[in-house]
Amino acid sequence: MGFFSLNDYLTIEKTILVCFCYFLYISIMKFVFSILLTCCLILSGFANDPETKTFLVIFDKTELKQFNSSAQIIEMTFNDLFETKSYTGNSEAAILIQIPGGTFDECQLGQVLVKINNTKWTQLQDIAFRIIDLGDTKSNFSEVLAIYEGKFYNNKKQTIKVNAKL
Asked: How do residues 33-85 score in pLDDT, each as one tens digit?
């Protein structure tokens, strides 16, 4: 027998009270759930996006000609996975690869198998002249620049003191 057939034990007033408490409980749970869902959505809006790492892969043109390859063919290996851009022209061929999440480093990128022509695949480090992490290069440049500016400021300060004594 069901919940509402307990006429021997519950009076109509108790049944109404139990139903009211049940619906009150459901209403409170809906309210709590909606508050939690709203908080999660708001906090996800403030979450930091994972840092994107950008790599510059430089190729030697003579080596690419030796393998009958080009930067565009090698770039096609990464097109489905990452945002890429290849550059060719008067200077050396290069590919910019942007990897979201910052999980790769130069060594791991160099171990990726790339298609160099219609029949041959090899590791990127075997065909690339240089793989450069532009994020690390930028931080190193900022550090060197800060040191230089600190030395320049100190030298300028000493020059001002010498000129003031004259």
From this structure: 999 988 888 887 777 666 788 888 988 888 888 888 888 888 888 888 888 88
- Residue partners of 97: CB distance under 8 A and separation at least 6: 54, 55, 57, 78, 82, 83, 84, 109
pLDDT digits (tens, 9 = 90+) for 87-121: 887 778 889 888 887 677 888 888 888 888 888 89
Cβ–Cβ < 8 Å for 122, 137: no
Query: Which tokens in the block code for residue 39?
Result: 């908080």
Contact between residue 109 and residue 74 where contact means Cβ atoms under 8 Å apart: no
Q: Which residues share a beta bridge with 110?
A: none
Instruction: Write the CA distances from 52 to 18, 42, 43, 74, integer angstroms.
Output: 56, 23, 21, 21
β-sheet bridge partners, residue 97: 55, 84
CA distance 164 to 103: 54
Residue type, 128: A
Please give the model's pTM, rounded to 2 decimal places. Answer: 0.58
